[in-house]
Design a protein that fits this description.
alpha+beta, Immunoglobulin-like, 2 domains, 5-stranded mixed beta sheet, 5-stranded antiparallel beta sheet, 41% strand
Length: 272
């Protein structure tokens, strides 16, 4: 009886463990005509119908690329500009074949087709967090960007970054998927640092939690189903004065100094 009970408990525990740590598999199809740069789209995700080639998954999830086109492709990790990075590569990938890859670490993983380099996409892998990718690309020198992670019952999109006010404004997207309206967001301190002030739909609030975890500012704030706009104001925002801006300023100063020197010399010679 004890042996039977032990077996039943073991099987039950195993079943629960398998459910708790269940992994998901997501298909991305390469549609017919994707080999032409004029095709309306080059990828189609069965997860959400997206045709951007981008997909959000969790650590341990699998992505399966399927070639539904009539020509050969590759699915190669890396970018057309920098080439393959060696993480995964289908090699030449004929019609009707599929290629699975399981992602075991969080991060942003770009991929493309070597044969048709206009076909690009990204796999965003998080530990239960959604991602707002490449925050900061429209400020400063445009070269320093960050992936901002968050947990929320809706999607968030970046509305704007105000360098002079040292603020980031986010906008909620879609309808709530649960009654839990708590927002947990992880902001890299290299992007924006605190102490913070927060405005919700134009009204300043004080009821939020902020802790520092290494190089991350972790903010927890309770919103409502009607929340639309969230503005986070810090004490520093990076890049406040990017490399390009410094270069332009330096060149401008040199031009001004050269002009002053030229006109001073000319005036001196005319006096003599």
């Amino acid at each position: 009886m004890k042996i039977l009970l032990f077996v039943v408990c073991t099987l039950t525990a195993t079943s629960i463990s398998q459910i708790a740590f269940a992994q998901s598999s997501y298909d991305i199809n390469i549609p017919t005509g994707a080999g032409s740069p004029d095709a309306p789209y080059f990828w189609q995700s069965e997860k959400d119908g997206s045709t951007t080639g981008d997909i959000d998954i969790l650590v341990g999830d699998k992505v399966v690329w399927k070639n539904a086109d009539t020509v050969t492709h590759t699915v190669t990790s890396g970018t057309p500009e920098d080439g393959p990075d060696g993480l995964f590569d289908t090699g030449l990938f004929p019609p009707g074949k599929n290629y699975p890859y399981t992602f075991t670490e969080k991060g942003s993983f770009p991929y493309y087709c070597v044969v048709h380099p206009w076909m690009t996409g990204n796999v965003f892998v998080t530990e239960g967090f959604s991602i707002i990718p490449k925050v900061g690309k429209n400020i400063g020198d445009g070269l320093t960007t960050f992936d901002v992670e968050y947990k929320f019952n809706r999607l968030l999109s970046l509305s704007s970054i105000n360098e002079s006010e040292k603020s980031i404004t986010l906008e909620t997207v879609g309808n709530p998927k649960s009654d839990n309206h708590d927002l947990l967001i992880r902001l890299p301190s290299a992007l924006i640092d605190g102490p913070f002030a927060i405005w919700i739909d134009g009204k300043k609030i004080s009821d939020f939690n902020h802790i520092k975890e290494n190089d991350l500012n972790v903010i927890d704030v309770t919103l409502t189903k009607d929340t639309k706009i969230i503005t986070l104001v810090g004490t520093t925002i990076v890049p406040e004065f990017g490399v390009m801006a410094l270069t332009i300023l330096g060149v401008s100063i040199l031009i001004v100094l050269s002009a002053l020197k030229y006109y001073s010399t000319k005036q001196f010679l005319s006096i003599r």
